[in-house]
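Annex B, item 7. Sequence and structure tokens for protein A, then protein B.
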Amino acid sequence: MSNIMIIASYCAPYGGNFISSVKMFADKMRELKHDVVFVFPQDTKNKEWVQRLEKEYAVIYIDNPHKTLQRKIIKQIKDIIKERKIEVVYSHFTGYDLDCFFACMGQAKLVVHMHNPINIMESNDWKQRVKSKVKWKLFNHRVQVIACASHLLEYIAGFGFDISESTYVLNGIDVDRVVNSKGINPFPYDTSEINILMHGWDPHRKGVDIAVKAINKVCENVHLYITFVDKMIMDNYLDSLHVNVEAEKITLLPAVENIMDYLDGADIFISPSRAEGSPYSLMEAIMAGKPSIGTNLPGLDWQNEIPALWTIDVDDDDALAKSIREIIKMDKIELLDRISASKDIIVNKHSADAWASKITQYFVEKVV
């Protein structure tokens, strides 16, 4: 059986669906008698989610990822491969991809999981574009790829990368994290208003400006709640839009690990993003029983099969306002039926367990 390293340049304050998903994958590989070790940046060491993971798996910490290749990081990964007799390295979130590539040469197979939406990778910086081209030319026939959406494979194929041994698997959510939990500290929404929740990091990509415009067009008693990770970034962004938070019935909420603290009392969840890989948040909101609105983006065709999920075009605040009004005015019985059917689809096709099963199948058939 194989020794597998899961390495991720992931340093979020909360484990969320990503950690739940990769742990489920590790559990399934362990059941098949494979050994799994996790590797994370030093900055994660004191976070609660990684401490919980340490109780079940070996976790190793290396230097934080750097924008350029670092010999020290390559050596750290090489040493882990040698000491742990690692045969497969499974890299997430791009930060360590190139380091892993050079550390794995002649030592271990490398599987890279693509999470980032295309317009992040295709930044306006021409140097980034050149770097991407070099990276995927370098990886060709040497790396296997799992993408979170089909269009990401098309993107790397455009650089000449042979995707015949690669695949895509849509993200899944930890259903139990939503269904079996209630808000520990539920936010005290004003029940006389229609409370609309969205995640706002990073603000421009997540479409905070689109949401603000739409709220002002709804002509209903609505209140917009926006979660943030960095308060200063959010404040500066809203200032650039000349938004008076109090006057426009907008409330900013700090991110929390138990998203049910906010979802419990919300009426509608919106995600007017300009770019996404495969968003967990919409699936979570549906599982929490909230009608939701997403954006028509490449690779997100799955949204069309969810009856309680409305979709709009990018930058279309008029359509967002129209969809909010439609949800508000919809017959409550019909809305509940839509939500029930939507939950069934997500449990069967888009849960973290379903994701882990698909990744495990790919590893068994193509990797280990």
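Protein B:
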Amino acid sequence: MNILIENFKQRNEISTIFLYILYFLLGMYYPFFSFMRQTVPQYWNQVTLFYHILLILLLVKVILQKNSVLDCFFLIVLLYLCYKSYQYNYDFYNIFGTMMFLCCAKNIEIKKIVKLDLYVRIIRSALFLTLPFMGLMINKINVWIGGRTRTFFCWTHANMMGLDFLLLAMDIMYLRKEKKKWYDIILYIGFILLLEKTANSRTAEVIILMLIIIHLLSIMVNDAIFHKLMVLFTSGAFLLCLGIPLIGCYLYLHHPEYFASYNGTMLSRIQLSCSFYSKNSGFGFYGFPIYDNDCLDMFFPYVSLHWGTAATIILTFAIIYAIIMAAIKHNTSMLLLLFFFLIYGCSETAHIYPVYSYFSLLLGYYIMN
């Protein structure tokens, strides 16, 4: 029996280390992708295959770890969902990676993941800010997007540069939770100024500004009150993330006159969601494919319309469960991370992908542990 227990412990340790390696490689995928596209474009397809292999290896991590009967049942349900996703919305790898991240959260330490993510963001940013000027990556300077010129060097999009710097700020705030000082905000203000002058990623800039306010609030009030505030804020962020597209789309479809005098980025996101909804005559249990002329930017419209009702139920449950458990266990740091991700989800959706962030690992943390 002791030997069996030791074997299980060893398997868990190996599987967790394996996940950390995979997470680092996923974080380095886009720098590698950009480098290969610029230097040897004939091998572009092989680089995409490398990404798909990394996602498949997440399943190996899940198999390696010690799983209960309930864990195995959950995995089977998720794999079946991924299979049906391939049949209906043609987005197997993205939904597969996200669902496997939920299962991969077993036996992980959030602090180690956040620290690893910080290293990934620093390395990515250093590569993206230097290699384009050496001719080793495509340099995107003064690109006209969204009615304004934006510079985002070698990131795939201006908002992806914004997401990287937002995660840098989140990671630093999380890791300095025991040593936080008021002057930490100088670095966060620097991120905002850099983004404003380059990528002009307004979502990331606004959330980093929120991060500064919350950082100062955490210094001014005691831990018990701050925890209660974060429970309130995170719950509110979830309702906003769900409610803005839900109420917005309902009003746009039934009372379009309300929006006659308003024209903005958020409205365009709601319009695109409504257009996709109308084109497919509602929701699908396994979702609908996204074509070149389609765009779903917000988290819940993307998941519910593209990935389908089944995926929406799973991810919504995971979010609610994570908030409740973090509140019960007084895990204020977890609530902080969830808050920023949910606010980001009000207008963006990239953070759900394993190649962009650890959001799905947070959602699976309490389910799998």
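Comment on protein B: The radius of gyration is 21 Å.
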